[in-house]
Q: What sequence folds into this?
């Protein structure tokens, strides 16, 4: 059963989502604060974290950054408002997706399924590819730069695999949302932009002057050409 770590300070929301996710087949560990969530991660290994942004003490943004700094665990954030600043800040902190409150259990479950599919998705190509200083092993799902492994979150890896599969081809944000986040998924283009920023920070010498993931203004993104 997929295991969910739910970090939510509102007792009614926490209990409601815990019951709904448990009914849908998940094992749920629910805590009230960011500190409790980070401590619990030392003893349990969830498949996904559902994280409220507005937490007492250590807030959700900092929790997200700490989780992302230590690994590639998928993170879905809960935001009380569909606020541009909160959403973008959460995505830039490392979240893979978000759900606006009041969170409907069926919507959250769909986002969890999607992010878990992205985490476990298999790739059929078997030959490691060289792109400049990057080596991409599509079978092993390993990316190295200068021979050293690059730690990528699942969505970052899927984005890199999608872009690098056709170097020089321009993909729109909607195409990337559909192929990387979920087939037919009509989501928020900010998911793409924030993920691109995080990916660039890990694979580019200068993220402000990217070589690998290039912006084609008015159209979308392309990989290279190098």
A:
């Amino acid at each position: 059963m997929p295991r969910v770590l739910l970090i939510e300070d509102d007792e009614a929301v926490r209990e409601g989502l815990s019951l709904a996710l448990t009914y849908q087949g998940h094992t749920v560990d629910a805590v009230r604060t960011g500190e409790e969530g980070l401590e619990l991660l030392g003893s349990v290994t969830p498949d996904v974290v559902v994280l409220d942004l507005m937490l007492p003490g250590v807030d959700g943004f900092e929790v997200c950054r700490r989780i992302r700094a230590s690994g590639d665990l998928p993170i879905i954030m809960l935001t009380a408002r569909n606020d541009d600043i909160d959403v973008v800040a959460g995505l830039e902190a490392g979240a893979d997706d978000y759900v606006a409150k009041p969170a409907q259990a069926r919507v959250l479950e769909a986002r969890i399924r999607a992010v878990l599919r992205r985490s476990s998705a298999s790739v059929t190509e078997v030959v490691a590819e060289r792109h400049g200083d990057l080596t991409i092993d599509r079978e092993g799902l390993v990316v190295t730069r200068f021979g050293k492994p690059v730690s990528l979150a699942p969505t970052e890896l899927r984005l890199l695999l999608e872009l690098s599969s056709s170097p020089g081809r321009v993909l729109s944000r909607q195409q990337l949302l559909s192929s990387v986040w979920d087939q037919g998924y009509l989501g928020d283009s900010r998911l793409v932009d924030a993920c691109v920023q995080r990916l660039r920070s890990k694979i580019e010498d200068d993220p402000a002057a990217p070589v690998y993931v290039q912006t084609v203004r008015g159209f979308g993104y392309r990989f290279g050409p190098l």
Q: What stands out?
A: The helical segments are 11-23, 34-40, 60-70, 84-93, 105-120, 154-164, 173-181, 189-203.
